[in-house]
Write a structure and sequence with these properties.
53% of the residues lie in helices and 14% in strands. By secondary structure, it is an alpha/beta fold. Bound molecules: nicotinamide-adenine-dinucleotide. Nicotinamide-adenine-dinucleotide (NAD) is lined by residues 7-13, 30-33, 36, 64-66, 70, 73-74, 95-96, 121-122, 124-125, 231-232, 236.
């Protein structure tokens, strides 16, 4: 049994912390949303009223927060994780954030004797609920080895991809591929519908051929039905496209398709779809063709 502090109990952190409780770990959770804390308590965990209360005395601190300012606040801020955690504590940041912040957190942790890993995930809400996430981990080998049994409680594919920040670079690569596929599935739907073809039947065929992919498997029905309840919000994907483009600039490479997908995701936000699932990228493609529809 490991004493775990879990900070950020939202769409992903909620089910993930629940799995750790079910695996009989001692989990104390904190979230700025009291409802989210109440859900962890109902699942058998302990609720805390601050980051400090959760992290004090923990062997492992896991963060699952929206973006880098939240991680900076929770980890580096006053009464944050680095101020209260005991030396030797393992801090696993599972949020998707820019690699620079992961490097900064790792350095600040080292100065305090706190071991840090960046461990962003892929697999979405379904992956979190089914404990089937893919987890890409950056940091030191021995810290990865220490974290692996716990990560195995929430994920299926757990890979050490390199030093601090490397997990975030791999996640950025993941997000540009996911965004691109959503964009193209949306274009396929618009083309088929505008040509008088039943898009549901058409996508069923695509899902059995070379164009098969997980997004077609999991989302084709909800996209054709115009159901866009998140899931993964457009706002978060917008953040991730920004991370991917900044990483490309840092690495001195040109990613033209990523740039285009980033603009489509920006358009989705500008059209007011930031809180919808990222499959709502379809709505931008519809609008470009003058074929807007209402979602369910
Ligand atoms: P979410 O908004 O549902 O959850 C984030 C939680 O953090 C919220 O409950 C919020 O109240 C809490 N929070 C914010 N600031 C806080 C603070 N200062 N202290 C304590 N709690 C705070 O988001 P999510 O969908 O769970 O995503 C979390 C991270 O995981 C993001 O970085 C996202 O990009 C990434 N991610 C999400 C998915 C997905 O499908 N939802 C998939 C893979 C990765």
């Amino acid at each position: 049994m490991t004493k775990i502090a879990f900070i950020g109990l939202g769409i992903m952190g909620g089910p993930m912390s629940g799995h750790l409780v079910a695996a009989e770990h001692d989990v104390t959770g904190f979230d700025v949303s009291a409802d989210a804390v109440a859900r962890l308590v109902a699942a058998g965990g302990t609720g805390a009223s601050s980051v400090a209360e959760a992290a004090e005395g923990a062997d492992v601190v896991i963060t699952m927060l929206p973006n880098h300012p939240h991680v900076e606040d929770v980890v580096l801020g006053a009464s944050g994780v680095l101020e209260v955690a005991k030396p030797g504590t393992l801090l696993i940041d599972m949020s998707t954030i820019r690699p620079e912040t992961s490097l900064e957190v790792a350095k600040a942790g080292k100065d305090k004797g706190i071991r840090v890993l960046d461990a962003p995930v892929s697999g979405g809400e379904a992956g979190a609920k089914q404990a089937a996430l893919s987890i890409m981990v950056g940091g030191d080998e021995e810290d990865f080895a220490a974290a692996k049994p716990l990560l195995g409680v929430v994920g299926k594919t757990i890979v050490h991809v390199g030093p601090h920040g490397a997990g975030q670079v791999v996640k950025a690569a993941n997000q540009l591929v996911v965004g691109g596929i959503y964009g193209l599935v949306g274009e396929a739907i618009v083309l088929m519908e505008a040509s008088g073809v039943d898009a549901k039947i058409g996508l069923d065929v695509l899902a059995g051929g070379l164009a098969a992919n997980r997004i077609l498997d999991l989302k084709r029905e909800s996209m054709v039905a115009r159901q866009f309840k998140p899931g993964f919000r457009i706002d978060l994907h917008h953040k991730d496209m920004g991370i991917a483009l900044a990483a490309a600039r840092e690495a001195d490479v040109s990613l033209p398709l990523t740039g285009m997908v980033a603009q489509l995701v920006s358009a989705a936000r500008a059209m007011g779809y930031g809180s919808l699932d990222h499959s709502a990228l379809l709505k931008v493609t519809e609008a470009l063709s003058g074929r807007s529809q209402n979602e369910e």
